[in-house]
Amino acid sequence: MSIFSKIAAGEIPSYKCAENDEFYAFLDINPMVKGHTLCIPRREVDYIFDLEDDEIARFQVFAKKVAVALKKVCPCVKVGQAVLGLEVPHAHIHLIPMQSEKDMLFNKPKLQLEQEEFQRIADAVYAEFQKL
Ligand code: 5GP
User: Fold this and answer.
1) Domain extent at residue 49
2) What CATH number does the domain containing 124 carry?
3) Element (H, E) at 122
4) Mutation probe of ligand 1 site: the residue of 48, 87, 95, 117 with most atoms within 8 A of C-beta
5) Residue 8's pLDDT band (boundaries 50, 70, 90)?
6) What distances in angstroms separate CA 21 from CA 43, 74, 81, one per listed residue?
7) Contact 42, 5 (CB under 8 A)
């Protein structure tokens, strides 16, 4: 079981932002910016482009809704989307509230946030997601 499968199953704690039967969203533990969120399919697939056509379509719609909720909580110019998958072998979409292009540079130093800050952001995104 991948670390992200354990997170989606609740076996490893996470700051939950959104979920449905098929997908789960939570805050990245080493955020590039406040609100840096990861969306994953519950089904364990390493490479995002190995997802079935209809599955990746639903995954993208889920990520879109998370991005809409995220933008309400973390004001930004746009929410950027990226797929790397070089560290964790479980497909995931990064959603990053951007103020500028620099916010998408994955090699820049990561933010240190307090637990309370992570929780506040996740709870607020979760509440906004429920309204969609
Ligand atoms: P990638 O595989 O796309 O290169 O990066 C994986 C991302 O997952 C990184 O941004 C990293 O900070 C995040 N990550 C790795 N392990 C955990 C974890 O246990 N919990 C959370 N919330 N994020 C993680």
Assistant:
1) 3-131
2) 3.30.428.10
3) helix 115-131
4) 87
5) very high
6) 10, 26, 22
7) yes
Q: What is the pLDDT of residue 92?
A: 98
> Which residues face 23 on adjacent strands?
41
CA distances from 27 to 2, 39, 93, 130 (A): 17, 9, 11, 17
Tally of domains within the chain = 1
Which residue of 1, 88, 108 sits with most ligand 1 atoms within 8 Å of its CB, as the best mutation to test the pocket? 88
| pTM for the full predicted model | 0.98
* Gap between the Cα atoms of 18 and 66, Å rounded: 7
Mean pLDDT of the chain: 98
Q: Which of 36, 90, 92, 94 is catalytic?
A: 92
